[in-house]
């Protein structure tokens, strides 16, 4: 039985091929070199206390549409005005109803550094992320081998993008550490089943790579969750669904941050 991640990867490879036919790698490289210097996503998460990457997400494969009256600019502004440190923007169209255009929309109104959250399978997407105005790019360890991950981390840094390297188990954490990643995301959601368990973060923290900032992703619902993560040594959290479901997203940001 094909799991959700495998299904997405098959689609995404076809989508990337289509994008390459529409716009060459040479053209995307040129655009990436010609756009404004990215904001420092890593530095924005490096302050005292727990930092928040607030996610702009309309839908997901497991939950369907999360926000019916979806306005990325309104969401970004609510996050920025209430203390979020960075934004995560879903750009996958087929499974998350995202759009590349949401990156500029969110960044222009918020002034916050933006992560392009998508399924990165090809160097083309890294250049494309830079050209779109993203400040960081998501690299999921389970989608590549260690050599490719190291290459992608190197390319992202060369383009002045912050690579957020995402792991879900011990072996992936070792691969991430070996790649030189300084920002490691622990995804509490199993991307094969989409089942979420916050204990994933607490387990992987036992082998925390020296010098890395750790981000706990998914399954963070309330201030109690945040306090547990902070006490365990987590540096930042990436929160989407529990924010997007709220009518008053700004109030939920303040609740999570304890402000």
Distance separating the two termini: 45 Å
Low-confidence stretches: none
Return the CATH class.
Answer: Alpha Beta
- In round numbers, the mean pLDDT is 95
Strand order of the largest sheet: 1-4-5-6-7-8-9-10
What class, by secondary structure content?
A: alpha/beta
CATH topology: TIM Barrel
What is the strand tally?
10
Helix fraction?
Answer: 40-55%
Q: How big a fraction of the residues is strand?
A: 15-25%
The number of helices is 12
- Radius of gyration equals 17 Å
Q: Which overall shape is indicated by the principal axes computed on the Cα atoms?
A: globular
CATH architecture: Alpha-Beta Barrel
Task: Describe the largest sheet.
Answer: 8 strands, parallel, barrel
Number of spatially distinct domains: 1
Quick summary:
By secondary structure, this protein is of the alpha/beta class. Helices cover 44% and strands 17% of the residues. The strands form 2 sheets. It has an 8-stranded parallel β-barrel with strand order 1-4-5-6-7-8-9-10, surrounded by 6 helices.
